[in-house]
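Q: Hi! First time doing this. I have a protein sequence and I read that you can turn it into a structure. Is that right? Here it is:
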Amino acid sequence: MGAHKDKNGTWYAQFRFTNWKVEPDRKTKRGFATKREALDWECDFLTQSSGNLEMTFEAFYELYKKNMKGNLSEWESQWYILSCNSTAAPRFWGAA
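A: Yes, that's right. Below is the predicted 3D structure, encoded as structure tokens:
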């Protein structure tokens, strides 16, 4: 785990992980305002890329929405998001 400060004052996250091909890989993302944001992004990335079943429903839902948008038209993806927000979301985390 690593969050480092850039010369321009922003933070970046840089770490190594094992990808889905079971090969070592490196990931870097820059431009975070705080160290906490960089570490949170790193934690979220590792949770989503690991295929771990221990992720929260909210994290799974955000990953689902991101992956779904590439496979459907804009109208279809908006319809799915609205229907999930009105039916599944209140049951799992109490907010519509």
